[in-house]
Amino acid sequence: MNEERIDSLERYLQLLETIEQTEVVLFRGQREKKDLLPKIARTDPSRDTTSIEKKMLNEFRRRAPMLLANADQLDDWDLLVHAQHFGMSTRLLDWTQNPLVALWFACGGTGDAEPFFVYSFRPPRDSFMDSKLLQLGPFSQGRTRVLKPMLNNARIVAQEGWFTVHRYSAKALRYVPLNVNTKLQDHLFILA
After folding, report:
1. pLDDT tens-digit readout, 149-190
2. What proportion of the chain, given as a percentage, has pLDDT over 90?
3. Is 120 helix (H, G, I), strand (E, B) or coil?
């Protein structure tokens, strides 16, 4: 993973111009340089949380009609996206197509001069979810994938949101952070 130091908004914008524009370039802003893991795996990446997530999603489905007018029409993917934005710990890691949105999250909205980190991710073509993979559901993915969610809530639209969908690896006995994932780490670039 390549890293480039930045010290001003002007420099950030200049660097963005140098990033090769492929079909999809995703960005993620963080206040700290930590492993790229979804919230469900950050405390203990070695814990297989799949059964817990399924229970939480089922409970969210039961309660969703109080929050969402069309809850009965949503599949597990859509519910998971909504649950993520309501604060539930999931296997989804937020990304955006807008580098300024990522910068906002990296700075925490404060604009202070503390260190911050923006990741640029150019996913390889074979990492995107397709209709066949979507039918398998969020808990049956064979590896980390990229999800372009339905534009079914205001946050996804405003943040130009995308997700990486992580899984517990039975082989590695843990959730593998994107930044050390051997198939994806070479597609990451960090602006710090």
Report:
1. 887 677 777 788 899 999 999 999 999 999 999 999 999 988
2. 41
3. strand
Does the structure show a pLDDT above 60 at 111?
Answer: no
Cα(189)–Cα(187) distance, rounded to whole angstroms? 7
Segments forming the whole domain that contains residue 169: 2-46+91-191
In a domain, 104, yes or no: yes
Residue 76, domain member (yes or no): no
pLDDT at 94 (0 to 100): 94
Selection from 116, 97, 114 nearest residue 105 by Cα? 116
128 burial (CB, 10 Å; 0-12 / 13-18 / 19+) is: middle
Task: Tell me, yes or no, whether 105 lies in a domain.
Answer: yes
The dihedral over CA atoms of 4, 9, 10, 13, expressed in degrees to the nearest 10, equals 60
Residue 179: half-sphere exposure toward Cβ, Cα within 13 Å? 16
Answer whether 166's CB lies under 8 Å from 147's CB: no
% helix / strand / coil in the chain, to the nearest 5?
Answer: 40, 20, 45
Q: What is the largest CA-CA distance in the chain?
A: 48
- Report residue 146's pLDDT band, with 50, 70 and 90 as the boundaries: very high
Structural domain count, the chain: 1
